[in-house]
């Protein structure tokens, strides 16, 4: 049983192996985003801070895209699935951010939660074929391929950076602060 903190976040293991530690910290960061976005009304999901156009709803949709892009597309070389495969990314490179205002909170959470579950399943699937050192199927333009270890670490960084944004956005919406 995983210990949860007062915000419902699973605590990463203090004595886990490399995989358990990386996956634990990624799940902690995912839970932090959920905590910062839950209970916010529709206006709060579209609120911005200062000159930024970033919103809590945009964060949920962007991170759903990032989950799918790394744990499905990059890791396995699979094609994008809906809704990402219907987007004209050349016309709007920030579609994930920009289109979130058209979605309900339920739609945004469902999209993000489904992407997280797909990512968790992708991690398990990948580990049946090798360890953390295995390369992703999709290579970068220079021919290099990030390892599964790199993808996990990058996802922790992605969430940690955006959770800082979520802190500011949530506080501006209703004054909620914490950690």
Describe the structure.
- InterPro entries: DinB/YfiT-like, MST-like.
- It comes from Jiangella mangrovi.
- This is Putative damage-inducible protein DinB.
- The chain has 179 residues and is mainly α.
- The chain has a single domain (18-174), classed as dinb family like domain (Four Helix Bundle (Hemerythrin (Met), subunit A)), CATH 1.20.120.
- It has 6 helices and no strands.
- The two termini are 23 Å apart.
**Unreliable residue runs:** none
Instruction: Determine the CATH topology.
Output: Four Helix Bundle (Hemerythrin (Met), subunit A)
- How many beta-strand elements? 0
By CATH, the superfamily comes out as dinb family like domain
Helix content: 55-70%
What characterizes the major β-sheet? none
Structure characteristics:
single chain; mainly alpha; 6 helices; 179 residues; Four Helix Bundle (Hemerythrin (Met), subunit A); globular
Ordered list of secondary-structure elements with their pairings:
Blueprint lengths: L17 H20 L4 H4 L10 H21 L18 H4 L6 H23 L20 H27 L5
Helix pairs in contact: 1-3, 1-6, 3-5, 3-6
Protein name: Putative damage-inducible protein DinB
Pfam family, one: MST
InterPro entries: DinB/YfiT-like, MST-like
């Amino acid at each position: 049983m995983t210990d949860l903190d007062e915000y419902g976040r699973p605590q990463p293991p203090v004595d886990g192996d490399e995989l358990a530690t990386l996956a634990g910290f990624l799940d902690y960061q995912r839970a932090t985003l959920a905590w910062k976005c839950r209970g916010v009304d529709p206006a709060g999901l579209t609120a911005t801070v200062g000159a930024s156009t970033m919103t809590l709803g945009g964060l949920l949709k962007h991170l759903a895209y990032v989950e799918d892009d790394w744990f499905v597309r990059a890791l396995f070389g699979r094609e994008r699935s809906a809704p990402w495969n219907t987007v004209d990314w050349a016309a709007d490179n920030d579609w994930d951010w920009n289109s979130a205002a058209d979605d309900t909170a339920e739609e945004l959470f469902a999209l993000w939660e489904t992407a997280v579950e797909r990512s968790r399943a992708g991690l398990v699937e990948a580990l049946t074929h090798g360890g953390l050192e295995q390369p992703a199927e999709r290579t970068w333009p220079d021919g290099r391929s990030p390892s599964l270890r790199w993808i996990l670490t990058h996802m922790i960084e992605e969430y940690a950076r955006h959770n800082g944004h979520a802190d500011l956005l949530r506080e501006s919406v209703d004054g909620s602060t914490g950690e």
